[in-house]
From TrEMBL:
<keyword id="KW-0503">Monooxygenase</keyword>
<dbReference type="InterPro" id="IPR011251">
    <property type="entry name" value="Luciferase-like_dom"/>
</dbReference>
<dbReference type="Pfam" id="PF00296">
    <property type="entry name" value="Bac_luciferase"/>
</dbReference>
<protein>
    <submittedName>
        <fullName>Alkanesulfonate monooxygenase SsuD/methylene tetrahydromethanopterin reductase-like flavin-dependent oxidoreductase (Luciferase family)</fullName>
    </submittedName>
</protein>
<dbReference type="InterPro" id="IPR050564">
    <property type="entry name" value="F420-G6PD/mer"/>
</dbReference>
<dbReference type="GO" id="GO:0004497">
    <property type="term" value="F:monooxygenase activity"/>
</dbReference>
<dbReference type="InterPro" id="IPR036661">
    <property type="entry name" value="Luciferase-like_sf"/>
</dbReference>
<dbReference type="GO" id="GO:0016705">
    <property type="term" value="F:oxidoreductase activity, acting on paired donors, with incorporation or reduction of molecular oxygen"/>
</dbReference>
<keyword id="KW-0560">Oxidoreductase</keyword>
<feature type="domain" description="Luciferase-like">
    <location>
        <begin position="10"/>
        <end position="295"/>
    </location>
</feature>
Length: 327
């Protein structure tokens, strides 16, 4: 497995410093998210500090920019990274699209497939016209005068549900997991859908990337409690009902959704944390990480952030980067 990392920073300067430290420790790709920062701006900031590691977005929201803008930003980022960009795209949830960004959510599978098709056509320098069911582009006189570093930039798709996962297997260069993804869920739910989606493609053409929330501390109980905030953040989302039910956590998830809708922080028992987060001592986390061997091609480690003060996240991040170095 390749080991990659999603750095954290209170400032962009701290984010880029963590990215550089992860590269020096051996991380093969550095991934930046889109929630409290722009994925593409963060990727540009990180790109200027790295010399070997790839730079990935995990994930940039697929529908909140036009496909043309996403393609142009990808081309610029590929230039900044010297051809080391990985464009990770995700649909986000209905609520996030409609109420946060005021963009359509209808037919997300069709919209995502067409978004990818437009981006690839623009990156390849192809015709600047596209007429789909959800996406349209009509710019026949447009010509980008800058020579691209690559005319094919890898596009990875984030997916949880079965239909979107099959789509990732069919059209993606890679698949990105949710930040919570156990080896059992990967083996029994994800890989069969990815394989079904390949539709004649070789499995080696698809990079299967597990995103693993990580919390390391000399005291395992402290490590688990630090990870509770991330579980609370995701457990309050009703969309993930089937995911939690697979792990025999349906009742806990339902209680978390009820608490979230009441404006309260969900309670997170240890039985929710243990199967879904890499939490414990460095040796315990390394042992848990080995559980993905033979299933995932790549693991993306990220520090547990939600609900934790910056000084705790910094300590955890330093321990994760140290672990990458030992691996």
């Amino acid at each position: 497995m390749r080991i990659t990392y999603g750095p954290w920073g209170q400032t962009l300067a701290e984010l880029t410093g963590a990215a550089r430290a992860a590269e020096e420790a051996g991380a093969e790709v550095v991934w930046v998210p889109e929630l409290h920062r722009s994925a593409t701006v963060s990727a540009a900031a990180v790109a200027g500090t790295l010399t070997r590691a790839g730079v990935g977005t995990a994930v940039a929201l697929a529908f909140t920019r036009s496909p043309l803008v996403t393609a142009l930003e990808a081309l610029d980022l590929d230039e900044l990274t010297g051809g080391r960009l990985v464009l990770g795209l995700g649909t986000g949830t209905r609520r996030l699209n409609e109420t946060w960004h005021n963009v359509p959510w209808d037919r997300p599978l069709t919209r995502l497939r067409e978004t990818v098709e437009v981006i690839r056509a623009v990156v390849a320098g192809g015709p600047m016209t596209y007429e789909g069911e959800c996406q349209r582009l009509h710019a026949p006189g447009f010509h980008r005068p800058h020579e691209p570093v690559r005319t094919r930039i890898p596009i990875y798709l984030a997916a949880v549900g079965p239909r979107l996962t099959r789509l990732a297997g069919r059209i993606g260069d890679g698949w990105l997991s949710h930040e919570l993804c156990s080896p059992a869920y990967l083996r029994e739910r994800v890989l069969p859908n990815l394989t079904a989606g390949l539709d004649g493609r070789d499995r080696e053409e698809l990079d299967v990337v597990v995103s693993a929330c990580c919390s390391i501390d000399p005291d395992p109980a402290t490590a688990r409690r630090r990870a509770a905030g991330t579980l609370a953040f995701y457990a309050g989302v009703a969309t993930y009902r089937d995911f939690f039910a697979f792990h025999d956590l349906a009742a806990e998830h339902a209680a978390a959704v009820t608490a979230f809708r009441a404006g309260e922080r969900p309670d997170v028992p240890d039985r929710m944390i243990d199967p879904l987060v890499l939490a414990g001592t460095p040796d315990q986390v390394a042992e848990r990480l080995a559980g993905y061997a033979g299933l995932a091609d790549t693991v993306k480690l990220t520090p547990a952030v939600h609900g934790n003060p910056p000084e705790q996240v910094r300590r955890n991040q330093a321990r994760i980067i140290e672990l990458i170095g030992t691996l």
